[in-house]
Amino acid sequence: MSAAEGPLVVGVDTSTQSTKALVVDASTGRVVASGQAPHTVSSGAGRESDPRQWWDALCEALRQCGDAAHEAASVSVGGQQHGLVTLDARGEPVRPALLWNDVRSAPQARRLVEELGGPKAWAERTGSVPGPSFTVTKWAWLAENEPEAIRATKAVRLPHDYLTERLTGLGTTDRGDVSGTGWWASATESYDDEVLARVGLDPALLPRVVRPGEVVGTVRDSHDLPFSRGTLVGAGTGDNAAAALGLGLRPGTPVLSLGTSGTVYAVSKQRPADPTGTVAGFADARGDWLPLACTLNCTLAVDRVAALLGLDREAVEPTTEVTLLPYLDGERTPALPGACGLLHGLRHDTTGGQLLQAAYDGAVHSLLGALDLVLDADADRSTPLLLIGGGARGTAWQQTVRRLSGRPVQVPEARELVALGAAAQAAGLLTGEDPAAVARRWHTAAGPVLDAVERDEATLARISGVLSDAAPLLERGTDPR
């Protein structure tokens, strides 16, 4: 390893499937070491993980980084949003964490929205209309289904909070991640006592919300991580807010992230409050806002269709008749938590490649439908759409996004943007810089730009028509249990 020009920092991404760690030169943005270790997620009606495996995965990822991790001066953690982590008096998990894509709390979400004034009131209060992904609905589900777990719970955390607390011994969170809980009021930037009372959650169980740029503590002595004593620990944040930091995102630039979930978002100076619930009014990690729309079904759903067809994921063929709505795990955008996949327009001459292309089209359609709602009214519509996430380098994904968006598409060359954003946050602790400015200095968004092509209005209209006509069937779907 060549000598670093500046201090080393560590950025962590604890995602649904794995934990990744990057050791980064704070001066240049060069990644000098990296590591990764997997998680397991339950199958069936629920989506759960044991938080202790996130810690084990972090230890392993850092072990893979070698001596570079030991030399780091600061660390910060980005993590999957919304997950409900319940801890007992010893700080041990009461039960596995309920993850963002566990939609069993759909009935509780509907009831909470109704009981506290309806969608418009929720949007004005918290910035978002809570769906079954939101943490507040998961707590309500747990209270109804596992009251013994509620009684044993002495602390409530989000996934990134859990790892930060294991590092420092202190219970903290940040505005970016807590804005996705449903119990944080974006209008006042504080916990919402009425919401907490409605679901029976004592605010004393919640972590302190730290300020952007604040050092939350130092790595404590009683651990087995390869950090030096006194290593600074940043606030961390949710994965989308971390990726926005990692891109050095400025207001008005749209991002489409293709991962386990699909998201579209942009930084805004204006506090969002969409009463339709399509756009979640999240905070970012700096002091601005991050209006965001999310689909549950993205790369995993399309890969599953490819596997069922026995095809490589790139083996697409043009299609003009077949429509596939790949709602394999219910859906969040549109709000159809009980839905399952729907295929329409199948004929004798339909090919497997056409079915696969239809799956791509169905996934991208849901995200692009929310794009105009995410962007401010005065945003420049010719600005390239930044394409990130695990699917961003796939040719079929790139071409589908180009064709259905009609916009130029830029694919940043930097990988692991969540971990890079956490690293930029860690670097800001040392230099006093805005983490987004750190990332811009690192040129993380640089990458090829694919020119705009004519927007495929016919396909968009066909999918929208099928979605509208099939609404009763999709709403009936299969009840998540």
Short description:
The chain has 18 helices and 24 strands.
Average of the residue pLDDT scores: 93
The low-confidence parts are: none
Number of strands: 24
Distance between the termini: 51 Å
Shape, per Cα inertia axes: globular
- Determine and state the CATH class of the largest domain: Alpha Beta
Percent of residues in β-strands: 15-25%
- The oligomeric status of these chains comes to single chain
Largest sheet: 7 strands, mixed
CATH architecture of the largest domain: 2-Layer Sandwich
The H-level CATH homologous superfamily of the largest domain, spelled out, is ATPase, nucleotide binding domain
Tally the helices: what do you get?
A: 18
Q: Considering DSSP H and I runs of 4 or more, what fraction of the residues is helical? A: 25-40%
Count of the domains: 2
Look at the helices and sheets and give the structural class: alpha/beta
InterPro entries: ATPase_NBD (IPR043129), Carb_kinase_FGGY (IPR000577), Carb_kinase_FGGY_CS (IPR018483), FGGY_C (IPR018485), FGGY_Carb_Kinase (IPR050406), FGGY_N (IPR018484), Xylulokinase (IPR006000)
Enzyme class: transferase
Pfam families: FGGY_C (PF02782), FGGY_N (PF00370)
Family: Belongs to the FGGY kinase family.
